[in-house]
Specification:
This protein is of the alpha/beta class and 245 residues long. It holds the Pfam family CbiJ.
Length: 245
């Protein structure tokens, strides 16, 4: 069987590692290209968009793809919705590997919002806000004109910060709790804004915020496709093996 793995997460990497040693299956991984220098995957990998639904269908048909596992970021909802829909159209099995959401724990000071556009209703003027939301979501915070914004991203910025009251901070994960605490202290952070991406590797910033007593603006996940879904790499492997018999 030939499998298309829509990648870009730690779960996708672990699944690719497991599949690279499995017989009877050929894997092609696909990365969106959002990160300029991603760590290589242990399976053949393409990078960049497909060119819309038509381009993705053409790729699937040209390469004889027999199943699709979508292990993209929980906020990559457009590619997930499109992939689920076109797989249904082509009658190709589709599975979403989606890690569980983070849940608030005792001591957390979370404010749940639908998007960053709700930030002015909760974050006071003069606050120093650390945006761990990625540059694609940055425009949602443009109305925080009376705050100082610090947006972390993996790659060095190609241009100036889009607002006069902000700056970029470049850093490549993973980060320990101690590293996050030290960073928040050094930058004198008052608020943390985070997408509810889930996952243990990036949870350290939330633990650091809890330890420092910082409030967190937690952005809710977008709607996910109405499709078959699992939460773990082991469950995804079981689903794949079930399609090989």
């Amino acid at each position: 069987m030939k499998l298309l793995l829509l990648a870009g997460t730690g779960e996708a990497r672990r699944l690719a590692e497991r599949l690279s040693t499995c017989g009877g299956i050929e894997v092609i991984a696909s990365l969106s290209g959002a990160t300029r220098s991603p760590a290589p995957l242990p399976v053949p990998t393409r990078s960049g968009g497909f060119g819309g639904e038509g381009g993705q269908i053409k790729f699937i048909q040209k390469n004889g793809i027999g199943a699709v596992v979508d292990a993209t970021h929980p906020f990559a909802h457009r590619i997930s919705a499109r992939s689920a829909a076109l797989c249904a159209k082509l009658q190709i099995p589709y599975l979403q590997l989606l890690r569980p959401e983070w849940r608030a724990e005792p001591g957390d000071r979370w404010v749940q919002v639908g998007s960053g556009r709700e930030a002015p209703a909760h974050i006071p003027p003069g606050a120093r806000v650390f945006l761990a939301v990625g540059r694609q979501t940055l425009t949602e915070f443009e109305s925080l004109t009376a705050c100082h914004l610090i947006c972390r991203q993996i790659d060095p910025p190609e241009g100036a910060f889009p607002f006069p009251n902000g700056e970029y901070h470049v850093g490549r994960p993973p980060f320990s709790v101690a590293q996050e605490e030290a960073l928040f202290r050094r930058l004198r952070i008052d608020w943390l804004a985070v997408k509810n991406a889930g996952g243990e590797a990036s949870r350290t910033k939330l633990v650091a915020a809890r330890n420092l007593g910082l409030p967190v603006l937690m952005l809710a996940r977008p709607p996910q496709p109405d499709a078959e879904r699992v939460e773990t790499v082991d469950a995804a492997l079981g689903w794949i093996r079930g399609r090989m018999t």
